[in-house]
């Protein structure tokens, strides 16, 4: 009996059968007699044989694996996107390899080189903040040029020859701001953001500003941006204490949560809140209406797109699917 993880060659020698016969028996080929297949399969089971999936993928020309790169696993949004992707891929017989860039272009590039070395049939990615801000996409364009199907989600870019899944950031932002103005009677709403350098952050800011203009509310000093939570906290505190803001729109999860935390500490009960949030911490305020990005649905659509791209021979038309954000 073989005591280490066996190979086809070792099983072949142990049973005095050709490697081809062993392989076909393990694949339940009708070319091999039932008795031989039973003999080989039973021996393989006792030896704890497991097929080399990478070697098999080289023979087949496909892996049935998809790579995913996300900026963070701590953000509930990305966790929900991952659930949507994994569920759809599993239903279609694919496995998912997940990597985390931690907003680093270098890490992102490293993972793309690895995934592009024959380990996956396609890649789904939300580009890192560093890549988006510097607008340097050479590492992604290299993967695309090599023929690997690629789907972007959430963060908008000017990349071509790839599909993408987004939401209408401008429209969602405009609607949330109008909620503060019309339903909450806010006269001095402000927007808080940690994503002002990213394209979707800019779209959300545009939606906020245009909603203020529509209702003849001054826009000067109405947007608070920061690079860190600490910086944002001090600015929000100043806006609430000195500028008497009466409504806060959070352009992203962390910004909204921080605003609510500061507001609770200052006991500013008259402040109205809204914004993007995928976190259960919104339970702090049962009256809070938020923008739900439908992250799981976004993940499912990204998975659908990459599988469609793998199967298609049309490499001239690429698609952007827009997921409807819910105001709940």
Automatic annotation (TrEMBL):
InterPro entries: HTH_LacI, Lambda_DNA-bd_dom_sf, Peripla_BP/Lac1_sug-bd_dom, Peripla_BP_I
Highest taxon of the lineage: Bacteria
GO molecular function: DNA-binding transcription factor activity; transcription cis-regulatory region binding
The entry's keywords: DNA-binding, Transcription, Transcription regulation
Residue ranges constituting the HTH lacI-type domain according to the UniProt record: 6-60
SMART domains registered for this protein in UniProt: HTH_LACI
PROSITE patterns per UniProt: HTH_LACI_2
SUPFAM superfamilies the record matches: lambda repressor-like DNA-binding domains, Periplasmic binding protein-like I
Pfam families linked to this entry: Peripla_BP_1 (PF00532)
PANTHER family referenced in this protein's UniProt entry, alphabetically: HTH-TYPE TRANSCRIPTIONAL REGULATOR GALS, LACI-RELATED TRANSCRIPTIONAL REPRESSOR
Name of the protein this chain belongs to: Transcriptional regulator, LacI family
Organism: Cellulophaga lytica (strain ATCC 23178 / DSM 7489 / JCM 8516 / NBRC 14961 / NCIMB 1423 / VKM B-1433 / Cy l20)
């Amino acid at each position: 009996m073989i005591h280490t993880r066996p190979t086809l060659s070792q099983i072949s020698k142990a049973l005095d059968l050709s490697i081809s016969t062993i392989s076909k028996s393990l694949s339940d080929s009708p070319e091999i007699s039932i008795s031989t297949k039973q003999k080989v399969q039973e021996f393989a089971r006792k030896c704890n044989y497991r097929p080399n999936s990478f070697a098999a993928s080289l023979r087949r020309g496909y892996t049935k694996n998809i790579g995913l790169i996300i900026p963070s696993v701590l953000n509930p949004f990305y966790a929900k996107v991952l659930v949507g992707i994994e569920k759809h891929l599993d239903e279609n017989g694919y496995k998912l390899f997940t990597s985390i860039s931690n907003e680093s272009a270098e890490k992102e590039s490293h993972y793309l080189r690895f995934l592009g070395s024959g380990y996956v049939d396609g890649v789904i990615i939300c580009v890192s903040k560093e890549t988006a801000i510097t607008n340097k996409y050479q590492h992604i364009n290299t993967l695309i040029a090599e023929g690997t199907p690629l789907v972007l989600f959430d963060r908008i870019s000017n990349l071509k020859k790839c599909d993408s899944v987004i939401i209408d950031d401008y429209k969602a932002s405009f609607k949330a701001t109008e909620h503060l103005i019309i339903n909450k009677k806010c006269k001095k709403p402000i927007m808080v953001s940690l994503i002002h350098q990213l394209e979707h952050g800019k779209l959300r800011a545009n939606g906020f500003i245009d909603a203020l203009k529509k209702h003849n509310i001054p826009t000067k000093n109405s947007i608070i941006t920061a690079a860190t939570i600490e910086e944002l906290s001090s600015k929000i505190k100043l806006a609430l204490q000195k500028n008497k803001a009466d409504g806060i729109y959070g352009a992203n999860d962390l910004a909204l949560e921080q605003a609510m935390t500061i507001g609770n500490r200052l006991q500013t009960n008259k402040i109205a809140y809204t914004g993007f949030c995928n976190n259960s911490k919104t339970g702090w305020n049962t009256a809070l209406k938020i923008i739900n990005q439908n992250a799981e649905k976004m993940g499912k659509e990204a998975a659908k797109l990459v599988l469609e791209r793998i199967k298609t021979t049309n490499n001239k038309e690429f698609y952007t699917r827009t997921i409807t954000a819910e105001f709940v």
